[in-house]
Amino acid sequence: MATTQFTVDGKPARVDGDPQMPLLYALRGDLKMINPKFGCGLAQCGACTVHINGEAVRSCVLPVSAVQGQQITTLAGLGTPDKPHPLQTAFVQEQVPQCGYCINGWVMTAAAFLKKNPTATDAQVRDALAGLKCRCGTHVSIMRAIKRAQAQMV
Ligand code: FES
Ligand code: FES
Prior knowledge:
CATH superfamily of the largest domain: Beta-grasp domain
CATH class of the largest domain: Alpha Beta
Shape: globular
Largest sheet: 5 strands, mixed
Mean pLDDT: 97
Radius of gyration: 15 Å
Structural class: alpha+beta
Distance between the termini: 45 Å
Strand content: 15-25%
Bound molecules: FE2/S2 (inorganic) cluster
Number of strands: 5
Low-confidence stretches: none
Order of helices and strands: EEHEEEHHHHH
Helix content: 25-40%
């Protein structure tokens, strides 16, 4: 049993429990932040991605104790309904989601990558997203949305 304190989307958070508990469980179970999804639980699909100090991280395999004092951003903190992130806008405009389960992973991973690499080529973007999965097969519209957002981010 241990206490881990960090910030999520700019607000202080505290989790009491097993320090080895995956961060994803702390976010979804303890803090009721349901944008990061449980997909594989093995760092293979990306559905659970959050930003830690701006880096895209798969929260299903990271012990909660590893984020002591860190700044976490979830999809809900990336933008607001009034001021959405360009990727959030583009995913809506391109009507990407089918079931929507994977979308958190694509948006969060692409957001962290494009922030550092705003002029990345299509091939570089595809490489950066290569480990993500969409079981509904929306990959073509995902890439279209990311390209649309990228044009707003350079
Ligand atoms: S649930 Fe974390 S990578 Fe699949
Ligand atoms: S939209 Fe259903 S898994 Fe991607």
